């Protein structure tokens, strides 16, 4: 990522911080995990429409709107003590690396069909690991995830 | 944004760059503005489901998936010479500032109803400006947006 791109992203996050801060906008500040659903639906539909029409300036604009919703939902959940935007970045990064060992761990593949099988196998393993994580034990009863 | 959050975002973008690079993943690399629509639909629906269930670890994970789709679509369009991720950041930032003069330009408001009216007025002005921008003139025939 170029320095200019990083700066632009930092500026965007600063704007959103101000928007959700003490002197921010009452509309944005009062959004919740429930209220935001209808905006997520409409913004993702607008992005789909722009993609279908190949309306490039509009694709760019709608990507920004969906991105704002993603950051806003992360902020709502940070305020509620659930997770932060940093957690979102870290988790998707870890998942991309884990699901692409042919790019990040030097494994080889013959065909794209093999790749699809490998992807499915990794997903199954993730589900299996998640089950082990949430199973109660003598030392740790309940959901530890 | 904290330094750690910036680092995590930079790491994510580096991973995606590698994924879409020369030695990257054939599946991710072959996606287009058309092919990506079905994944955008399913990922945004999964985020909606997680929000409805208030499944916080899943909201975090699905936000990451939608974010990846946003960055992937931006990469597709950069490759096609349309716009970059930096353009997405810059445009949404400009729009947020433009639509919130009560936060960024010191204008005042009485009620939330006034705010909604102001928002609508700004949107109408944007549409008007866009029409002027794309109207043909003697010096510049056709779409200049």
Automatic annotation (TrEMBL), chains A, B:
Any Gene Ontology biological process: dGTP catabolic process
SUPFAM superfamilies given in the database record: all-alpha NTP pyrophosphatases
Domain NTP pyrophosphohydrolase MazG-like residue range list: 31-104
InterPro entries reported in the protein's UniProt record: MazG-like_dom, NTP-PPase_MazG-like_N, NTP_PyrPHydrolase_MazG
Gene Ontology MF term list: nucleoside triphosphate diphosphatase activity
The protein's name: NTP pyrophosphohydrolase MazG-like domain-containing protein
Organism, scientific name: Desulfotalea psychrophila (strain LSv54 / DSM 12343)
